[in-house]
Amino acid sequence: MAETTTDAAAEPTAEEVSEQKAVRLAKRERLIAASDDLALGAYPVRLPITATIPEVRDRFVGLGVDEASGEQVGLAGRVVFSRNTGKLCFATLQSGDGNRIQAMVSLAEVGEQSLADWKELVDLGDHVFVAGEVITSRRGELSIMVSEWRIASKAILPLPNLHNELSEETRVRSRYLDLIAREQARKNVIDRAKVNASLRRTFDSLGFIEVETPMLQVMHGGASARPFVTNSNAFDTDLFLRIAPELYLKRAVVGGIERVYEINRNFRNEGADSTHSPEFAMLEAYQAYGDYNTIADLTQQLIQDAAIAVSGRHVVTWADGTEFDLGGDWARISMYDSLSEAVGEKITAETPMSRLTELADAEGIEIDHPLPGKYVEELWEHHVKGGLERPTFVMDFPLDTSPLVRGHRTIPGLVEKWDLYVRGFELATGYSELVDPVVQRERFVEQAKLAAGGDPEAMRLDEEFLRALEFGMPPSGGMGMGIDRLLMALTGLGIRETILFPLVKQTSVE
Q1: What is the pLDDT of residue 88?
Q2: DSSP code of residue 510
Q3: pLDDT tens-digit readout, 326-383
Q4: In which residue ranges is the amino acid composition biased (Low complexity) (predicted)?
């Protein structure tokens, strides 16, 4: 028989995919018809697996060239390479974590019919079970000399070319193919799990308690953002997907859970770009008897511990090979002072709106907002943000853009809020929390006026939250951090790469 090699060398056309699917469906029917035993067929319910590919690779790492171990194993993996010759077939099997091992199917070991079936029925992408002795080939490649094999799951569609890089569109829309084809995609999933585990370890070591708060809320709040709206049939009322867990976590602090945090999903009906996603993972934490300085210390520890969990040190290596240092104590700069330095004149909370408008117009910055603080923030982003490469806490924000934050203890018109910038993007935000229910009500009233004026991001007056505050909330520091953005800081990737299954615009399917 002529030698055939199969490794998805060329990307199949749509017509070729359709033809291959028809051929594979016919093989599926043949496998099903060949046996009524659920342990066989095209999709067996159970297989006699005794080891995994990573376990075998670790266990027999010292096996010499062209050497037999004398030990039998049964394992399964996806066929990602196949080469068929007359009396001996080779296949590379890949486990879910990307580890690979060679399977050798020979006439002498399996017999004529089994070898013929292998050549006829096994395609790239199939999951197969093989049992046999662990050996090394003449080239020293760890292998299984197959004495028995079965289809574990018949693939109906062909894999993409594993030798070519998948397009970003394919990686995002078909993450399952990305995970099969690309080591970085698998690493992203593992790194994210390590980061979440690290966050929980750090919180646990500091006496924080993890809780869960509602995702469906009768009133959206905790941030300035446009919400998603849905309807409950059971309660016959409109509900909002939460934009932040803040108002419920503060209720927990009122109730006596003085160190509390949550890692969960938030939803904001806004734009999507390289740093924003409508659905995202969020960490929020609150510490009674802390303030925005202690919560900045906590945030730095959380991120540095996460860096160690991913890379073993504070210096992380991004996907492009760049090293980024997250170690040391991070700088803390004033928003107003750094903006003043950038524009060459003193900017304060008393700077008139007319002057802020002039400064914005001079830079061609279009700002459609009634609050002076919004102009300060937009001007700061234009002049200063892009230059912040190292982790930097930007301190002390305008009062009128931060309705849930305590007023600054020494500077009128400012609040005790910081944003943490890493690589020029916002990673986290922290506050000295506003716990005075009277002042909080006044702030909510101002927000309600903005909402009535048509601002879709303004908060509504939340009477139940105010009632909780009236029972007394201790002075507290609070912080929020996007988990997806934390992965961006640790890996150098865009947000759609750090989310396993990001929301993308749907395309028509013919």
Answers
A1: 95
A2: -
A3: 999 999 999 999 999 999 999 999 999 999 999 999 999 998 888 899 999 999 999 9
A4: 1-12
DSSP secondary structure of 17-49: HHHHHHHHHHHHHHHHHH---TTSSSS-S----
Would you mind telling me the total number of residues written for the chain in this entry? Answer: 510
CA distances to 125, 178, 183, 311 from 317, rounded to whole Å, are 32, 21, 15, 7
Q: How many helices (H) and strands (E) does the chain have?
A: 16, 19
Residue of higher predicted confidence among 447 and 390: 390
426 is in an annotated binding site: yes
Q: Can you tell me the distance from the alpha carbon of 175 to that of 250, in angstroms, rounded to the nearest whole number?
A: 37
Residues in CB range of 209: below 8 A, 6 or more apart: 257, 259, 260, 261
16: pLDDT strictly greater than 90 = no
Q: Which two tokens mark 445?
A: 């009233």
CA 60/CA 428 separation, integer angstroms: 46
Mean pLDDT of the chain: 91
Dist CA 24 CA 5 (whole Å): 18
How confident is the model over 386-399, as a mean pLDDT?
95
pLDDT tops 90 at residue 4: no
CA angle 67, 71, 73 (to 5 degrees): 115
Q: Which amino acid is at 448?
A: A
Q: Please indicate if the annotation marks 183 as binding a ligand.
A: no
CB neighbours of 306 closer than 8 A, spacing ≥ 6?
194, 195, 198, 199, 486, 490
Sign of the C-alpha dihedral computed for residues 133, 138, 142 and 148 taken in this order: negative
The Cα 360–Cα 355 span in angstroms is: 9
pTM: 0.88
H helices of 213-311, in order, are 246-254, 292-311
CA atoms within 13 A of residue 75's CA, in its CB half-sphere: 29
**Of 266, 213, 307, nearest in space to 481 by CA:** 266
Residues with Cβ within 8 Å of 477's Cβ and at least 6 positions away in sequence, in order, are 286, 287, 290, 291, 292, 293, 294, 295, 298, 430, 431, 432, 433
> What is residue 455's predicted lDDT score, i.e. its pLDDT?
67
pLDDT value, residue 1: 38
